[in-house]
Each structure stands twice: as structure tokens, then as C-alpha cells.
Amino acid sequence: MRVDLRTRAGQVLQRCQKLALFSEDAGSLRRTFLSAPMRDCHREIASWLQPLGLSPRIDAAGNLRALYPAAASGAPRLFIGSHLDTVPNAGAFDGVLGVVLAVALLESLDGKRLPFAIELVGFSEEEGVRFSTPFLGSLALVGRLSESHLAKTDSRGISVREAIESFGLHPAELPGAAMSRDTLAFLEFHIEQGPALENLGLSLAVVDAISGQTRLEFRFSGRANHAGTTPMDLRHDALAAAAEWIAAVEREARRTPGLVATVGSIQAKPGVANVIPGDVRATLDVRHASDGARTQAVAKLTHLAEEIAARRGLAVAHTLLLEQPAIPMDPFLSGQIETAIRAAGCKPHHMTSGAGHDAMILAGSVPSGMIFLRTPGGISHDPAESVLPADVEKALECGMQLLAQLASSS
Ligand code: GLV
Ligand code: MN
Ligand code: MN
To answer: In the predicted model, what is the mean pLDDT of residues 96-121?
Structure first.
């Protein structure tokens, strides 16, 4: 029975909500790399693919992979997907929507085979929540998940390698997770996660490039002491220093066009009311469409931390967690996406993504393209994250059109 696009779009939304139930936290969504709910998530997706005759495999990096065969053997492969992990207190659509839409596109083909195979991928890790390092899933696909990634540990001291093993997977098989040489391209549907499309009253955008990002951890080391007896002028308060720096980070980013800088996590020790904090760790996330502007901003913000610490008689050190340059999407694919968006009856908007995506890792190895869906209120990384059913319908129409275009050009 043919299912119309509106019904399919409704099912996409329901499925995203269903996956949002698989969480490590009661009452809110958190699903990190190879956690128990990730297994439930895989099982649920497998149950949707089974009627298509597909049985997904989980590769050695924990990515869900399902191959929809081509019309003929030996044909190249188009990858479509996004990530299945989430931030804490997440919404239901970041990443997941791209995987669920890929399932719906396979269903919409109604068994029709194309001149290329389609490999659906649900990446195991994109957010960097569990190991403070993002893109573990997509790095495995491009053969760049290194020994140093495998050695990273989470807050309980469990390494990436150990997490892979305790999920029943084998790190020695990681080379088998790499994309095959016959890969045609990678396509990722994703919510915009910002206000641009909504402000323009448009449904879909072509992503021309993804902004670069640097993530660091700063450690302010002062001196813990008694909160009642230590005079204010004799303190080396690490939290007060960090607070001054955080305000300076915000000021600097506000006055630099295109720059966004965020201190998203802070830990003060010993962390009790009556002790002056002696030790503070704070993360810094810096992004800009221009790599030069980003690098310059990181140097300036680091200098500010050093200057504030020195003035207050503290030490400060920093560790680099991620340095990811900005990357353009493939111009041919972007052109095809623009045509497909028009064919779906929408006006295409072109934009640079401020958020990081798996496509930025894949783009270094294979032609990659992204399609954004409007995000109501521009709200993401929050339970209020949403997407409009009519936009999902348009995204499906655009996806079907894109597959037809790529089929006729290959
Ligand atoms: C991923 O969501 C990011 O931090 O951009
Ligand atoms: Mn995200
Ligand atoms: Mn995402």
C-alpha cells in the first residue's frame, strides 16, 4: 500500500518521540556513546527496517549501519544518516531526525532499486558528552578513530576502548567500520538548531559550509582556605577568577562579529559553602565561520585567562580538547540539494552551520551535503526542541527528489 507523504511525516515525528524514551536519565533524555539505552534505540530502528528486508549491523565503533542494495551489484554507495547520541536534557530531534528521515526515504522507495546502494548510518557519538571528544562515530567511518581516541576516559575512568568492549564489540575490527572505497557521497538531514529559517519564513536550507570549532579545558589553580577567617585581600579564589574570565569571554564574543564563545561546564573544588574554591575546571567552546578569526579569538581568550589569573595570584593551564577547521560542503551536492528543495515547492536558503555535524568529518573524505529543517523558536539542545510536520513532509519530498536526481546523473 502506498503511504502518502503527510502520513509518513507524521510517522517520522512519532518515531523520533519513541526514540526519545530510550534514555539514561529518568524524566529527561540523555543517550551517550554505547550506553544501555543506545542498544534499545538500535533494536527499535532494526524493527522498522525489518519489513524492508534489511537487518542492520552495529560496527565496531557502535554505529548502526543498514545497506539497501542497488539495482545491480558492484554499484557505488550513498550514505544517508546522522547521530543517535544526545546531550543531557536533550530534545527529540537533534541527530535522530536525520536517521529517522533516512529510514522513511528507504520506505518511500517502495522496493525500487537505484543505480547506487544506500547505506543508512546512525552514528554512535557526535556530541562529545561522555568522553569530552565529539565525532567518535564518524571518525571511525573515515578511518581516523585513533589510539588516542580509544584511550580517552569518561567521568568513571572507563576508556572508549573499554566501552566498545563492554558493549560486546571489538576494537580490533575498527578498520572494518571504514566506508568502502566505492562511496559516492554522504547526505545528512538535520534541524537547523537556530533561528535563521524561521526568521525568513522558510522550511529548508542548503548548508554551504560548517563553522570550525575549538574546545578547551581551562584549569584555574588558586588556594583553598577558610571562608570565615580569610580576609578578602588575602584570597586566591579560583572560582572568582574563573567568573571574571567567563564574563570577559562573553564580552569579547559579543563585540567580535560572527564569533560565538561558550563556557558550558564548570567544576569548583572542594565545592562546599564554607571553603574558598582552590581549583576550578571550565570548558571553552569557540566557533567562527573563519578559521583565522576563531584561532585569533582562542588566543585572545587564553591571554585573558592568564592575565586575570596572574593579577589574582593564581596559576592557569589549558588543554586542547578539539580543533576542527571549518569545512565547505560539496558544491555539486549543494547544487543538487538546491534543485531538490525547489522541486519540493520551497525556496532554498543557503547558510553556514554554526553547529558541528558528522558531515564535517565525512566531508574530509567523501563529497558531503546537508539539508536543514526550520527549528521553531531556534531552540535546540533542550526538551523544547521541535520541528513542524509540514517541514518534515517537505524534507521527505526533497529527499525523494534528490535521490531521483542523483539516480539520473549516475
Ligand atoms: C553539536 O551539537 C555541536 O556542539 O555543535
Ligand atoms: Mn547536538
Ligand atoms: Mn546534531
So the answer is: 98
Ligand 1: residue whose CA is nearest its atom 1: 356
Question: What single string gives the DSSP state of each residue in 212-270?
Answer: EEEEEEEEEE-B-EETTTS-GGG-B-HHHHHHHHHHHHHHHHHTSTT-EEE---EEEES
356 lines ligand 1 (CB under 6 A): yes
Q: Which residues of 348-386 are buried (b: 16+ CB within 10 A; e: fewer)?
A: bbebbbbbbbbbbbbbebbbbbbbbbbbeebbbbeeebb
Atom of ligand 1 nearest to the CA of 380: 2
Q: What is the pLDDT of residue 2?
A: 65
User: Taking residues 146-152, what's their average pLDDT?
Assistant: 97
Cα–Cα distance list, 49 to 22, 43, 400 (Å): 18, 10, 18
CA of 83 to the centre of ligand 3 (A): 7
Amino acid at 253: A
**For residue 179, is pLDDT > 80?**
yes
CA dist., res. 134 & res. 129, Å (int) = 7
Between CA 84 and CA 86 the distance in angstroms is 7
**Percent of the chain at pLDDT above 70?**
100
Q: Are 41 and 101 in contact (CB under 8 A)?
A: no
Cα–Cα dist 77/80, whole Å: 10
Rounded to the nearest integer, the mean pLDDT of the chain is: 97
Tell which one of 357, 382, 385 to mutate to probe ligand 1, the residue whose CB is within 8 A of the most ligand atoms: 357
* Spatial separation of the C-alpha atoms in residues 217 and 232, rounded to whole Å: 27
